[in-house]
Inverse folding.
């Protein structure tokens, strides 16, 4: 039994806190999805496809979302029946199909994104500096998980080939994005950027070291 004199390790308590947040976020995902007659996995697939110019295959989608290929396939079929995605069969391989989001799918995604979840509202209630500190902590945890192969490479600034940490003097906007050729600050750091292009492992490691050194 945990007592003030014998507390559980802080890492355990952080994990417990994240688990509580995860419960709320799962509920938020259902609320967003149901607003457009979808299920959370279907909505996640639309969000994934909306951020990519290159049309993705089922295996890529399943790996990114952390679900089985049969689960991804079932969700894709449901989205196709609704007209939210379209498949294109390869002329070279009739068994291979690529998948893209339709205009109807983008409209459904936009409608779902107007629903603010409880977790988002709670984050917005934090002071600005606390929001920024939490964002940086989450980036660090996500980076650790992806380098440990617990999750796929995420579309965040820290893994992008366009990210240049601390290229500019000053504390407000020290970083640089080569994609848009603009400076940005910690609070603008992205977890899931639609323009993201993954850097190679060596570049990712060097960029992260530079980011950590500040």
């Amino acid at each position: 039994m945990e007592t003030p004199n014998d507390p559980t390790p802080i890492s355990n308590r952080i994990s417990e806190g994240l688990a509580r947040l995860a419960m709320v976020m799962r509920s938020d995902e259902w609320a967003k999805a149901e607003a457009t007659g979808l299920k959370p996995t279907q909505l996640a697939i639309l969000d994934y496809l909306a951020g990519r110019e290159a049309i993705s295959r089922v295996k890529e989608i399943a790996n990114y979302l952390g679900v089985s290929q049969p689960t991804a396939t079932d969700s894709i079929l449901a989205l196709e029946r609704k007209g939210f995605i379209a498949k294109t069969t390869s002329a070279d391989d009739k068994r291979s199909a690529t998948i893209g989001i339709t205009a109807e799918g983008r409209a459904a995604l936009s409608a779902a994104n107007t629903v603010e979840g409880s977790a988002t509202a709670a984050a917005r209630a934090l002071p600005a500096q606390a929001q920024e500190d939490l964002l940086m902590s989450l980036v660090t945890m996500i980076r650790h998980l992806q380098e440990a192969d617990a999750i796929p490479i995420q579309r965040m600034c820290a893994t992008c080939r366009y990210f240049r940490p601390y290229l500019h003097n000053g504390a407000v906007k020290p970083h640089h994005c080569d994609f848009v050729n603009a400076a940005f600050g910690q609070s603008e750091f992205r977890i899931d950027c639609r323009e993201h292009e993954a850097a190679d492992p060596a570049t990712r490691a060097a960029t992260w070291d530079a980011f950590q050194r500040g």
Remarks:
- The longest strand covers residues 85-89.
- The chain has a mean pLDDT of 90.
- Residues 17 and 111 are 30 Å apart (CA to CA).
- The chain has two domains: 10-112, 126-213.
